[in-house]
Each structure stands twice: as C-alpha cells, then as structure tokens.
Amino acid sequence: MSVNSLPTEIICSIFSFSNESLIHKHHLPLPSPHVESPNSPMSDFCVLPSLQKAMNHSISLSHVCVRWRHIAVDLSTLWTRIFLNHNAFNDVHTTSNFTARSTNLPLYLDISLDDALHPIDSFEDKTAHILMGHVCRCQTLRLLGSDFDLNVILDVFLDYNISSSPNITSYTPLSHLHLMRKGPSDKITFPPDLNLVSPHLTSLRVFGAHVAAYPRWSIRNVALINTFISCRNYHHLLQMSGTRKMVLERVTIPDQVPHIRGGLGGSRPSSVTSLTFSDLQCAPGESHHREIFSTFFTISTVITLQELEIVKLNEKALEAFIAVLRVSPPLIFPELARLTLRFIRVGRMAVTAMSRSFPMVSEMVLEEVGGGATILFDAWRNDGSGVWPQLSEIFLDQKLIKRHSIH
Q1: First to last CA, the chain
Q2: Are 329 and 289 in contact (CB under 8 A)?
Q3: Residue 300 phi/psi, 5° resolution?
Q4: Which residue among 21, 117, 210, 241 sits deepest, i.e. has the most Cβ atoms within 10 Å of its Cβ?
Q5: Tens digit of pLDDT for each residue in 155-165?
Q6: Is 102 helix (H, G, I), strand (E, B) or coil?
C-alpha cells in the first residue's frame, strides 16, 4: 500500500503529527552563540524557540508532489508558525501567501533580520503590508534585528492597537515577546513602549535592546540581558505590575533616583517572588558606584521574595548588597526559601547578614564561592547556632553536602 493511496484525512493527521513532534523536539533550544551566551544564569528563561525548522518542514512537505502540495497548503495548522528573514520581506507576495495560509488560527512569529549588508528597500511599507492583517492573532513574537528593525516591526503592533477600539480586549493578543538587538543602527530611533505595543504580555525577554516602558497588567516573567533599566521602570516592574519572576543580567543601572511614594526605606510587599542579579553594571565614568548599587538594592527589598540568585556581582555591588541587609532595624525576608550564590566572594560579614535576613532558607546552591563555602559551613553545621535550621543539605559545585556530613 503506497502513501499516496491513503485517504486525505490520514495524510493530514500525519502532517500535523510530524509538525508537532518537530516543535516539541526543538522546544526552547539554546540561543545562537553570537547573540546570547548559553552559560548565562537561567539561559532558557523566557526564551522563545526558533521557528525556522518548523517552517522549513512545512515547506518541504508541500514540495514532495502535487497531491501533497494541495493537502499541505490547505492544512492551516501547518502554517501557524512562521519564520521570516530578509528575503521574506523582499518578496512581499510570497510571504503574504504564507502568513495567510493559517487563516484565522493563532499565529506564532519568528523574525530574524541579521543581514545588515543587504538593507530592505521600503522596509516600513513592506512590513505593514505583510503583518498588519495578522497581528490581531499573533500570540508570540521572536525578533532579532537592529534598533531600527525592532522598532519598525513593533510599530505595526502599536499602530494596530492605536487604531483599535478603546476596549483593551480588542488589542493584539501578543503574550510572549523575545527581543534581541543585533548590531548598531544607522538610524536614530526611540525605544519602544511595550505597554502600548503588547498590553497583554505575560513573558518578556530582552537582549541588548532598550525599552522605554514595560507592560504592567498581565506580565509575569521578565528577563533583561545586556541592557539598561531606569529606576522608574524597575520600580514599576517590582511594585506596580504582576511580575512574579525577574532576571537581570549585565544590566546597567542608573545613578538618578526618582521620587518614590513612601520613600526607599523599609521592605515592601510585591508580586515578585523570584529575583536573579547577575553581573550588574553602573554607567561608565560614575565615581560613586557603591552608592548607586545601594540605592538599587534598596528598591529591591521586597518581602515577598521566595527565591534569590546572585551571580558574578563585583566587589562594590556585593558590598552594597550586604550593607542594605545590615541596616537597622534589620531587613527580614520571611518567605525566602531558596538562595543561590554563583561566582562571588562571600566573607564572614556576608554570611552573617544573609543568615539574619534570610532565616527560612531551606534550599541553597553554591558555585565557585571560594573560601566563602568554608565560612558558611562553619556557621551552618553547628546545630545550636540557629543558622538556617530548615536547611539540611547544600549543593556545592554540583555536589550534594548534607549538614551532618561536614567535619
């Protein structure tokens, strides 16, 4: 029995199954080495997978024979995951046909514009022609390009929302966004306002791009890498949004602090339960880095934290963090249960401050903390010391150390 003798319904099921299997097989791959490092903390957090293989697979099915082509082209579920590059924007007619094949089904877009040597003529007009009719059903967007490229694509979503009814339910349903800035732009652009571009966003990952404002109402997970964040935006994400988990890696923090109602002192409730600080930076040329870091960490004192990860903080940043913990009266985080320290120097003062501020830690991960592990173990192994009584074991450099096995 040949494949072509199978009923059309069976072939449709096979096509759909093969497409879904490919997607699950390649779910959340590590980012390309030239864009993001796979060794970064939580390197897959908020990452959207490339859809290039899924797109190529659908095209391959449609090129086997005449019958398969008719079946594949008419199978709308096969075309809900679309990958677009420079060539796609230079062939508007073909690209429009691809995006239309999914009819009214939810759409998942992956746009990669990393060919800076071949700029696209009339890029704004072509982008609007290709995307405007489909952003109303776009669920996820993975976007790689220059500042100009990113703004042109996101402006289509913005224009759609502005032209929509004032009712927020009529805005684009975009829920997952992964922005990657590739190289400088020869055109001056304004950073995008994601609160207007994607008000329904729940997951956001930004690499290299600057953002003017972040969504508030639906956002849950945020990863900011190699970018800048203002104190205002950071305060909004912590205190005025639904953010639950936030990763800040190689983020440059500002030296200017806006007025915050209630002031900076004291701990505050927040929806955020998980924070990661990795290799935080101050603006070049600043001479008072410790004060800048102190202000930043003071804003970060939310008592709802359940998980805290600290990675590669420089000496001034770590000193500022410990100084914030050692204020009087002391800051106490009663819900913090998981503490992760990687690639930092931990001294006795730091161990004392963290054991006091994080008394309920029950999970701990240490990696490349030098002599800090010995200092920490000396305090922890003494049953009568009262240091982390819920903590029965520690992962040290990927090895499990139990409390009563320390000598």
Answers
A1: 71
A2: no
A3: -80, -5
A4: 241
A5: 999 999 988 76
A6: coil
